[in-house]
Amino acid sequence: MKWSEVRIMYPDQFVKLKVLSSHIKNYREIIEDMAVIRPVPDESATKELLKSKDEDLVYHTSHENIVLEVRQDVGLRRFY
To answer: What is the tally of structural domains in the chain?
Structure first.
């Protein structure tokens, strides 16, 4: 399902999604295809996001696109 379809079906609310297809460009992940798991009430959106794993995501349909910033882990090295 495309994000534009999700926005029409669930206007102005949080939804929990499973990412099916995405690509990375300039340190940003652009989500192309997804499956809606369920709508999420506003008061529990943060809790649901923190519980999400792997390809699950909680996002608000007021956004025109789903674009996530990709952060690279900074490793610390210890020299002896």
So the answer is: 1
